[in-house]
Amino acid sequence: MSAQIIDGKEFAAKLRANIAIHVERLKKEHDITAGLAVIIIGHDPASQVYVRNKAKQTLEVGMNSFKYELADDVSEAELLKLIDELNNRDEVHGILVQMPVPKHIDATKIINALNPAKDVDMFHPLNAGKLMTGQIGPVSCTPLGCLMMLRDVHGSLEGKNAVVIGRSNLVGKPMAQLLLRDNCTVTMAHSRTKDLPNVVRQADIVVAAVGRAKMVKGDWIKKGASVIDVGINRIDAPERGQGKTRLVGDVDFESAKENAAFITPVPGGVGPMTIACLLANTVTTACLINGLKPPKDLTA
Ligand code: GUN
Predict the structure, then answer these.
(1) Going by CA atoms, what residue is nearest to atom 3 of ligand 1?
(2) How many domains, the chain?
(3) Which of 166, 187, 230, 296 could bond 172 through an S-S bridge, CB–CB 3.0 to 4.6 Å?
(4) 147 in any annotated domain
(5) pTM of the complete model
């Protein structure tokens, strides 16, 4: 039997509608308009599209959006000065520096300069530590979106065997922490894992975040497992015409859906949830900065 497809687009639309309600409540009850500042350096077309979408959706849920477009050759000192201003500006509750930054800028220095209370990406080591020790704070957007979808289809994740493939700071590591928090038994697999297919075959939940097109094959997936595909890989698509390309995930969707019970497609799965969770995190930080309890349904 073919898996049920988890529609990330629809899920993200519902989440944004809920975020808009919380944003309105913050305005009415506390006179706070949540605000997100986004900094983009240079003219990378993919980053431009992401940032445009972030700004548009920020405004659509009723938040303030502050966008800073800096030239490719902006100095590290100028960028640090802007971050310092935003760190101290009251209307700004979230700061996102679009990655990657140009080579002459030290990304670690930038991340460490962010006010952790406004770090909606969870890049800052203090926030990574908060996640690890069970304290409330912003949680990396993509893993938060994956967790929300898994909770929605399963209710409780307790006792499930989860395999996370990929160990990046932005996705793999926080995803494993979140699943552990929800009482899964978690295995972190990566490029050096021995016999990856058999490791994945033990999983009730598979989160693939390796960045390799269609790497996870259908016969690696246990019958009835849930498969969350974080990968976004552009491959040639000659069937669509000469020079055409298309997006695929890290999972071979066509074969995996024959064994899985639930699966996210690419595009239209995890992707739309990432921006929605960025907005959710901005509500969370706006609440925490103002001494309010963040809405439970927007946090991990
Ligand atoms: N570049 C690609 N994805 C992301 C993300 O989630 N956050 C930031 N800051 N930059 C990115």
Answers:
(1) 99
(2) 2
(3) 166
(4) yes
(5) 0.96
Note whether 201 and 252 are same-domain residues.
Answer: yes
Atom of ligand 1 nearest to the CA of 96: 9
Q: Is residue 12 part of a domain?
A: no
* Cα–Cα nearest to 124, from 142, 103, 138: 138
Residue 1 has pLDDT above 90, yes or no: no
Residue ranges lining ligand 1, Cβ < 6 Å: 96-99, 121, 141
CA gap 286, 298 in Å, rounded? 12
Query: How far is it, in rounded angstroms, from Cα 69 to Cα 202?
Result: 46
CA of 97 to the centre of ligand 1 (A): 8
For ligand 1, mutation pick of 41, 44, 49, 50 (most atoms within 8 Å of CB): 50
Distance (angstroms) between ligand 1 centre and the Cα of 99 equals: 5
Residues 161 and 207 in one domain: yes
Output the pLDDT for position 69. Answer: 96
Residues 95, 214 share a domain: no
CA 120 – ligand 1 centroid, Å: 10
Residue 296 lies in a domain: no
CATH number of the structural domain spanning residue 35: 3.40.50.10860
- Looking at the domain assignment, is residue 125 inside a domain? no
Cβ(159)–Cβ(187) below 8 Å: no
Cα(201) to centroid of ligand 1, in Å? 31
Q: Enumerate the H helices of the chain as residue ranges.
A: 8-30, 45-60, 76-87, 107-113, 125-133, 141-154, 172-181, 196-200, 253-259, 270-289
pLDDT in tens, 131-170: 999 998 899 999 999 999 999 999 999 999 999 999 999 9
* Residue span of the structural domain in which 52 resides: 30-117
